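Researcher: We're teaching a course module on how sequence relates to structure. For the next exercise, students receive a sequence and then see the predicted structure as tokens, so they can try to spot secondary structure elements on their own. Here is the exercise chain.
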Amino acid sequence: MTLPTPDWLDDVRYDDRGLVPCIVQRFATGTVLMMAWMNAESLRRTIETGETWFWSRSRQELWHKGATSGATQTVRALHLDCDGDTLLALVDAKGEGACHTGAATCFVAPSEDVAPGPVLAELLDVVRQRDRDRPEGSYTTRLLDGGVDRAGKKVGEEATEVVIAAKNAVAGQGTAELAEESADLLYHLLVLWRTAGIDVEEVADALARRRG
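Model: And here is the predicted structure for the students to work with:
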């Protein structure tokens, strides 16, 4: 699966060896899996194949992550930092061993059971982009065009469906419905925030004040 060519591709600042560090992070949980080096060719192959490729400094050769172990990494997104000298790859990792030792991560890390911050961050970026571009035919565009009244009505509807799904879960029908309805509620809440002109940082600040 070929990735879209990043608009920052020519802005990558390789070091004097032609290398740039790439931090690999699990897309769904935000867990940092590893850091490896890329050169222009491995970055090109990563974009063309949709899986991570790196440059081995010890072997002086390209290597496809998981080619021998099976622990491949499908790239969901590639980012370049503000200085242009570090890459971030958000991936779906196949298998459990991201590290060459067989460990799930090369770093000492807590459990994988963490909040899916990157997923929500990406969803927020999508809502912001839809607000800027207003693509025709987009459901998000229709909600944004309807303003607070339309988005607020949907939040109310989705909140009710979350409560019903929660009751169903308690009644022994499983939690899959609750997860789906909760995802819908979070999405519509992000759209409502956008229509009302409040940024997620303000909500985070309010939560932080309550903790204090």
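Model: If you want an answer key for the exercise: Residues 9-93 form a domain with the Ubiquitin-like (UB roll) fold (CATH 3.10.20.810). The chain has two domains: 9-93, 117-211.
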